[in-house]
Amino acid sequence: MPTPTKGPRLGGGPAHEKLMLANLSAQLFENRSITTTVTKAKRLRPYAERLITLAKKGDLAARRRVVAQISAKNATNQGIVHELFTVIAPAMAEREGGYTRITKIGSRKGDNAPMAVIELVMEPVSPKQKVVRDAEAAAAAAAPAEEEPAEEQAAADAVEAEASDEAAAETPADTEADETAAEAAAEETPEEDK
Question: Span 14-125: which CATH code?
Answer without folding.
Answer: 3.90.1030.10
